[in-house]
Backbone:
């Protein structure tokens, strides 16, 4: 039975009011790894942030993507950089994931960074590193998609850190089915 117009309008409004929270919760069912994206600015500061929107895009050419909140304070750094790294965090690196998700001064910009690969700052001890040069930007909604070409990568067999439903999990505790 079709609801009367007034009842239908009320249902639509209720759905709309809760969409942000409900959508975020539903999207959180998609388990991901956790990465730290890092880039060095000309003044030798390393800017980095915790990101779980990282995904593979293409093998030939080798392309990856991640998304950044367009109003993020880091937007200007990452949209201008010529090179950035993606470190796929190991399960032992929960503190690093938390630290680089924090607002400055604890997170984001650092001097005296120790580990580099292909001239890019990386997080030492991670499960994998991808060095990406150049990038394409696609602005959509409240995020920008950043696409980078992988010029170098390294894989280490450390179990990964996993993120799902707003919580972190250890990759080594996952059971193969
Ligand atoms: C597990 C996790 C994953 C995140 N993934 C992203 C992401 O993909 N893109 C993003 O812009 N911010 C992401 N963030 C948030 C950033 O790490 C950081 O907290 C945020 O950029 C700070 O606020 P800002 O958006 O004003 O810069 C993530 C945070 C956590 C804890």
Residues:
């Amino acid at each position: 039975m079709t609801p009367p117009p007034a009842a239908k309008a009320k249902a639509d409004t209720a759905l709309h009011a809760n969409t942000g929270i409900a959508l975020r919760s539903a999207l959180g069912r998609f388990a991901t790894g956790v990465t730290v994206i890092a880039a060095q600015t000309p003044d030798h500061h390393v800017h980095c942030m915790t990101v779980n929107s990282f995904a593979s895009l293409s093998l030939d050419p080798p392309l990856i993507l991640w998304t950044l909140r367009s109003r993020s304070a880091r937007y200007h750094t990452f949209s201008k950089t010529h090179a950035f790294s993606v470190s796929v965090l190991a399960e032992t690196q929960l503190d690093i994931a938390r630290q680089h998700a924090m607002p400055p001064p604890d997170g984001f910009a650092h001097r005296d960074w120790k580990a580099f690969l292909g001239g890019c700052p990386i997080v030492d001890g991670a499960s994998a590193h991808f060095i990406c040069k150049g990038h394409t930007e696609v602005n959509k909604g409240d995020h920008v998609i950043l696409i980078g070409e992988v010029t170098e990568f390294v894989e280490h067999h450390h179990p990964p850190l996993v993120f799902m439903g707003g919580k972190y999990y250890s990759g080594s505790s996952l059971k193969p089915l």
Notes: The radius of gyration is 19 Å. The longest helix spans residues 5-27.
